[in-house]
Amino acid sequence: MFKDNHLLKNLKIATKLNVLLTVIAVITVFLSGGVLSLILSHNAEGVVTDKALVLMETMSAVRNYTSTRVNPELASRLETDYQFLPQTVPAYSAREVFEYFREQGGYKDFFYKEATLNPTNLRDKADEFEAKIVEKFRNDESLEQVSGFRSFNSGDIFYIARPLEVSKESCLRCHSTPDVAPKSLLTTYGRENGFNWKLHEIVGAQMILVPADAVFESAKKLQVSVTSILIVCLALAIILINFFLRFSVTTPLKKMEQLAQRISTGDLSKEFAHPYNDEMGMLAASLNRMKVSLDIAMSMLNSETE
């Protein structure tokens, strides 16, 4: 403790100020970096959410078009064709259209899934995590959307989910019971999965998924850029403060110190001139008055001696 105080006493004003400014700069960069990270991450999440919701609305439109326009045109072939026509299924159309979206640069990191509790095609089977989301929608009909992150061995995934409801009577043709299902459906997928659905029942969740790294990549780049600019600005501020300190404080003080040393040796021929009326100017005037007073006192002392 004593050594630290001794070292501090021996430091010059400029050095002390630089140490203080450096500490302030480091704290400012650290705190602002943390706050900026939160703000940019939240903003990046909002941007991705907006994109995902647009995609989800688009997929809903594709589903509706398939259900109302495509399915009626191909419905008769479901009974006569040996293989089931997946083009009649809204979920299939949505997935195929979404793959075209993924070929675009702005959506290559997005993934689409209709996670279903009891799907006809097991490819759409909801896993344990997705099943909990579906149950959340089933238990709270007022809930329109959920989002968050889930972890995989390959990394975190950001997801947005909306309830998938049996909204049209026509859906039950393939999902009510095996007895009324098209023959080609039973031939292709069997009689075990995708049945016993009910009108207005929530059977799954429409989900958009994005790797978390893709969500925050742009935010990280922007944070680095802003932090770099902040560091440069703080460095320039420290340089300017040092220049001002040298011009207005340390250089005048050094000149005063030199004048005081000359006065202490009896040289009263010089005066300290400071052109500004700031604190340094007031100190210079006081030093000059002290010199004059000392000169008068020395003259009086010499007169009495003679």
Automatic annotation (TrEMBL):
Keywords: Kinase, Membrane, Transferase, Transmembrane, Transmembrane helix. Residues 247-299 form the HAMP domain. Signal peptide: none annotated. It comes from the Bacteria. SMART domains: HAMP. GO terms for molecular function: kinase activity. The chain crosses the membrane at residues 20-40, 224-245. One of its GO terms (cellular component) is membrane. PROSITE patterns: HAMP. Pfam families: HAMP, Tll0287-like. GO terms for biological process: signal transduction. InterPro entries: HAMP_dom (IPR003660), Tll0287-like_dom (IPR021796). This is Histidine kinase, HAMP region. The lineage of its organism: Bacteria, Bacillati, Cyanobacteriota, Cyanophyceae, Oscillatoriophycideae.
